[in-house]
Amino acid sequence: MGFDLQPALQKRKADNLYRSRRTLEGPQQPEVVIDGKPVLAFCSNDYLGLANHPEVIRSFQNAANQYGVGGGASHLVNGHSRAHQQLEEELAAFTGRPRALLFSTGYMANLGVISALLGKGDAVFEDRLNHASLLDGGLLSGAKFQRFLHCDPASLEQKLARTEAPRKLVVADGVFSMDGNIAPLKDYAAVAQKHDAWLMVDDAHGFGTVGHGGRGVADLFDLGMRELPVLMGTLGKAFGTSGAFVAGSEELIETLIQFARTYIYTTSIPPGVAEATRTSLKILEQDEWRREHLQSLIQRFRLGCEQLGLELMASSTPIQPIVMGEADKALSFSRKLEERGILVTAIRPPTVPKGSSRLRVTLSASHTEEQIDRLLAALEEITREDKA
Ligand SMILES: *Cc1c(COP(=O)(O)O)cnc(C)c1O
């Protein structure tokens, strides 16, 4: 009786798709101890090295003294602290929008926003490589769900032209999380406006890493609120903390407060996380050298891979995947790197399409040139062994 869970687990293993976790000792940084072994890691999303920044930590500690730890209630009950309010105001100013609203996670923000804006009879158009949370949000909303070809405004336009839904929402990642490329948002915005649709962008990986002062893809493409009414970002990546936000008009934010179920029915993030994020936002904006150093590491890594004949994706962001093809090849490469003390995760289906398994290398401003060279040297050894 009961569920027979074994067959699906066995199949995952047989397909080289089984996932398991490792235990990290200590903070997120390039040199970490994982499962008791010291390794040089290229897999965190802490692109600017703020997750373990002394000032961010101090703000977190001070806030714990002032506010305690837990948020204690949802925002609409009495869990909305001064710290949350101030962070929202600062995120609104940062994004150049009238308002911003905090969510507990990016996943919840995406589910909540899309299902608050759309319902049965509406239509949602998603880039086929969108983050799982955007796809799930679209499905949950009950709107007619359509995917268009990756980074293809013509494919989007074809689908938009054929719909008569009253509300149409176009949804895309700003920087694609598994590929590192940037969506053609100027074109998406133009097509969306032409067909009277709204555009929503999830800029989880663009905030902090691209645009002036790390203002993300909206700044990069100069997209104001008219072209890009729904702008979402996460705090767990370049911000180095945790949580997410949506920025937009007064009406949009009030709509989310009233109708986004993942906003309403959940506890606010700890006020200390909000205070830590206020500090990391300041550093993220001010420390231009972090973005400059990161860009120089990206150039160094790409040049090195090119010299080794490794296939990289067309990415100018800190996400620099090496294309492997089949899942077993990506896994074996990742294992060989680990034998050499280097950690890079193999990304396999269903996270990425079949046949496009990859090593997802992510670089951070906290890496040094010497560390990039160590990665390149290990890649060279493994490639040479593979050929021999
Ligand atoms: C990480 C990520 C999310 C989820 O954010 P969390 O705060 O980790 O839940 C959403 N969208 C994209 C594109 C992401 O990379």
Describe it.
The protein is an alpha/beta fold. It folds into two domains: 10-41 and 288-387, Alpha-Beta Complex (Aspartate Aminotransferase, domain 1), CATH 3.90.1150; 54-286, Type I PLP-dependent aspartate aminotransferase-like (Major domain) (Aspartate Aminotransferase, domain 2, 3-Layer(aba) Sandwich), CATH 3.40.640.10. It has helices spanning 6-14, 54-67, 82-95, 106-117, 132-141, 153-161, 185-194, 216-220, 250-259, 261-264, 271-286, 288-308, 327-339, 369-387, and strands at residues 24-25, 31-34, 37-41, 99-103, 123-127, 144-148, 168-173, 198-202, 230-234, 244-248, 319-325, 342-343, 345-347, 357-362. The chain has a seven-stranded mixed β-sheet with strand order 4-10-9-8-7-5-6, sandwiched between helices. Strands 1-2-3-12 form a four-stranded mixed β-sheet. A three-stranded antiparallel β-sheet has the order 11-14-13, with helices on one face. Helix 7 links the parallel strand 7 (168-173) and strand 8 (198-202). Helix 2 packs antiparallel against helix 11 (271-286) and helix 4 (106-117) packs parallel to helix 5. The N and C termini lie far apart (52 Å). Bound molecules: pyridoxal-5'-phosphate. Residues 105-107, 110, 131, 133, 173, 177, 202, 204-205, 234, 236, 244 line the site of pyridoxal-5'-phosphate.
